[in-house]
What does this fold into?
Amino acid sequence: MTRADTGTETDKNRFVLTGFAILALAFILGLSFVVRDNLRVMGVAQGDQLSWRASQVEVEYLKLLITLRDATATDAPDLDAVRKRFDVLYSRLSVFKNEALTHEALANLRAMQQSLDSYIPVIDGPDSRLVETLPDFQKVLLEQQESSRSIALGAIQGATEIQALQRQRVVYLLEVMMILIALSAVVIVATIFFLQKRTAEQRRASIQAEEKRRQLQATLDGAIGGIVVSDKDGNVIDFNAGAEAIFGYRKDEIIGRYMPGLLLPAEEREAVEQSMARYHASRETTFSDSGTHEFRMMRANGMVFPAQTQITTAQMLRGPIFISFCRDLTKEKHHEAELTKARDEAIAAAKERSRFFAMMSHEMRTPLNGVLSSLYLLEEGSLSVEQREHLDTALFSGDILLSHINDVLAIERSEDARELEQQVCDICSLASNMVRMLEPMAKERSVTLDLEKKGLKDRQFLTAPRALQQILINLLSNAIKFSPEGAVSLFARYTPSEVLPGQGTLRLEVSDTGIGIAPADRDRIFDDFVSLDNRYERRTGGTGLGLGIVRRFTKRLGGSINCMSEIGEGTTFTLDLPMTEADLDAKFAQGEDSLKSGPVIMTPKCILVVDDNKVNRSVMEKMLTLAGQNVILAEGGEAAIRLASQQAFDLILMDISMPDMSGTQATRSIRAGNSPNRDTPIVAFTAHALPQELERFRKAGMSGYLMKPVNRKALIECIDKDYTNAEGGFDVAAPVGPSGVLDHNQVSDLQSFLGPEELTAYLNDFKDNADGLGLEMKTAHASADLNQLKTAAHALAGTSGMVGSIQLFRLLRDLEQGCVHKDMDKIDLLMAGFDDAYDRLCNAWDQVLANPAAYNTAE
Amino acid sequence: MTMTTLAVADSDVMLTTTVNDVTRSFTMTELQALPVERFETKTIWTEGTQSFEGVPLAAVLDELGVTEGTVSAQAINDYAVDIPVDEITETAPIIAYHQNGGAMSRRDKGPLWLVYPYDSHPELQSEVIYSRSIWQMDRLSVK
It folds into this structure.
C-alpha cells in the first residue's frame, strides 16, 4: 500500500471514529436529560405523606363514626361536630387521584363518595332533619368500615407500584447510559491512540522533510552553476554561492528582492515578465521546464552578459516557485566565436587551396599534353646521341609531371558525385583488369604481381566502380613502386552478412615485400602530400597524394582502411568496404553441422590453462576434465611462468590479454628460460582473429591459436593437433559460426558440463563480470579512451564467447577492430547497439534457464 | 361530585392564633383586611392550574409581631405541622381564602389553605413543602 492510500484510509477511519464519538456523546447527553428528568421526578415529591393521608381516611371515617355514635346517644347532639367531621372526611376523599389506586380501592372510594354525597342535603339541611337521620347515616357508614381500610391500603399499594415502575425506568435508562459511556470511552481511547500514532507519524515525516531540506540546501550551496530560486511573484527566495559569483550580489542582500528587475536587462525583463503573467493566467510555461534557454543577464555592476538558463517550476503550498539554473556563457561564447572563425578560415583556405590546385592542374595538363606530344614526335626524328639523352630526360620529367597533375585531379574528383555513381559491377573482373593493367609496371620493376579472390565469383555488386579503380590503382602502384624486385599481392574477399541478406563486406588486402613503413609514420601516410622519404620519392616519383585519394574514396564508400607494416619486411593495406549485392537471389551460407555430442576418448594430457577470467578458467577446466584431460589453472602470465618452471606440461593454453603480463610476454619468457616447457606447444587462446595478431603470436613463439569462444570440437582438435609443423597451429579457418543470439551447441555443452545450479551460478558470475566491463567500456567510450575500450571489449568478447554469445561476441570483436583502426563512426555505431545485444543475450539465457529441457531437445 | 358551599358568616372565627399564651382570633373580614397575595399554580391535589388569593403567612406573623421561632399550624382535621419562621418569605406561603375566584368550602380543603406557588419554584415541589401545605387550617401558634 502506498503512503497516499494509507493517508486516505486513516482519514476515513478518523472520520468514522469522530462521527461515532459525537453520536455517542449526543446520545449520552440526551439520555442524561431524560435521566435527570426522571430523577427529578423521583426527587420531587409527587405527593405528600401518602401513607399518612391514606391511613388518615380511615381515621377520619372512624372519627365521623364516633361523632355520630356520640350524637345519637345524647338528646342534645353536637351537630356542628357532625358537620365538621363529615366535611373533613369528604375533603379527604376528594384528594385521591384515580390512577394512584387499585381497582378495588377505587370502587370502594366511589361507593363511599356516593353515600357521602347522598347525605349532603341532610348535612346541609335543618338541624331537626339531621337529628332524625343520624342513626340511619351511622348505619350506612358502619357498613363501609371495610371500604375505608381498603381505600387506604389500595392507595399505598398503587403509589408503591408507580414508584417501582419509575425506579425500573430510571435503572434501565442509567444502564443504557452506562453502556453508551463505556462505548464512548472506548472510542475516545481509540481516537487518542490513533491521534498519537498520527502525531508520531507526522513528527517522523517532519524530521524526514527537514533532513531532505538540509540535504537539498547543501546540494544547492554546493552546485557549481548559479541557482536562483524565486517565488511566484519573481522575488528571490534562495541564491546559492555559484549565483553570487556570477551575478555579484550577496545572498543576504538579494533575498526578497525582485529577480527580473535585478538580474535581467530591460530588453529581456519584459519577455520574462510576460511569460510569468501568462504562467499565472494559464499555468502554461513558455520558458520553464523546457530545456535550456540562452538569455542575456545582468550583473550587480550593470554589465550584461550571455547566460544559459534552465528554469524548472515546483508546486509549493503557497504557490509555484521557479528554480533557475544559470551559467555564464561569456567565455564560452568568446571561445566559440574564435573557434568558428578559425574553422571558417581554415575551411576557406583549404577550399581555396584545393580549388587552386585543381584549376592549375587542369590548366597545366592541356599545354603539358601539347609539350609531350611534340616531344614524342621529336623522338621519331633523327637525333644525335646527346640530343636523344636530352629528349629522354624531357620525356621522363614530363611523364612525372603529368602523373602529378593527374593525382591532383583525382583528389578533386573524389569530391565529385559522378565518381561515386552506383553501378552494377563485377568486382571479380574489375580486380583482374586492374592487376592486368599494372602488370607492365610490375614487370618493369621486376615485381611479381599476384591476385587471389574469394567469394566474388558469380556475384554482382551495386557500387561505384570508378572509386574502386582509383583505390586499387593507387594501392597497387604504390606497392609496386616500393617493392622493386619484390612481390605484390591483391587479396579480394567478399563475406556476406549473416544478418542482412544481400549485404556483406568486401575486403581488399594489398601486400608487398617492400621497404615498409615505420610505426610512427603509419598514421600520417593517409594525409595529403605526405612523402615519407624525399630521396626515395625522387627515385619513384609521386605527389604523396595516392593514399590521400585512397582514404577519400574509402571513406566515401563507407569503408575503413588499415595499414600494417614492418620496416624492411613489407606493408599490407587492408580495406573493408560494405557491399550491396546486385543479385539478391544469391544463396547464403548454410549453417554448419551441429556437433555430435557424446564422450570422446583421448590420450590424457597434462594441460596448463592460463586465463585471468575466473569464469573462463572454470569452464575450460570442466570441458577439459570431461574430455579426460588433467588440468592445472593459472590466473595470469606470472603464475603461468612460475608453474611452467616447476612442472612439464603437454600443452599450454594461453590467454593473450591479461592484466599482469600478456600471453605473448609470458610465452617469450617460457621459451627463453630454462623451464621444462621450453618446447611445449603454447596455444594462444583469445578472441583476436586479426591476421596481424596471429603473426605477433607466432613471433612470440606460440605454436598455435585457439579462438574464443571455445567449443568442444575446436578444443578437442586443438589438443590433438600436431604442433611440430611450425605453421600447423595457426591453420585455423575463420570461424563461420551459426548466426543468432546464442550458440546452441555452446548452450547444450554448458548445460551438460555444469548442470543447472552451477550453470546459473556461472551465468551470474558472467553477468557481474559483464556489467563491470560494460560500464568500463561506456566510460572509456565517453572519454574516447580507445585503448581502454579495446581492452574492455576484448575481455568481454572472451567471456561472452564462453557463454555462447554470437551477436554480442561479434559486436565486441568488431568494436575491438574499430578501436585498432580508430574508426570512431564504427565505434559509436557499435556502442549504440551494445546494450541491446547484451540484453538479448541475457534474455536468451533467461529463457534457457526457464526451460532447459526444451533447449536440449530443440537441437 | 356535587357540593354545596356552606355559607360562612363574617363573624365566624376563621383562624385562632396563640403567641406567648396570648390568643387572638381572626374573622374572614379581618384576614382579608391584611395584605393580599395572588398566584397561579398547579398542585398535586388538584386537577389543572389553580389561582389562589390570600394573605401571606409573613403578613399574619407581622401582624402578630412574630420575628423568630417556629410556627405550628393545625387543621380542623387535627393535622399539624411546624414551619420555621426563617423559612417563611414575604410572599410564600399564603393563607389562601379564595380558590379560582371563590371562597373555599370546608368540604373541599377550605376555608383556609396554606399554599405555596409550587410551579414558580421547583424547590417548592418537595415532601417538606407538601407536608407544610396544610388545608382546613384553623389554628396557628408560635413557639
Remarks:
- The mean pLDDT of chain B is 84.
- Strands of chain B lie at 13-19, 22-27, 37-41, 50-56, 70-75, 80-84, 94-99, 102-103, 113-115, 137-142.
- Residues 17 and 70 of chain B are 13 Å apart (CA to CA).
- Chain B has one domain: 13-142.
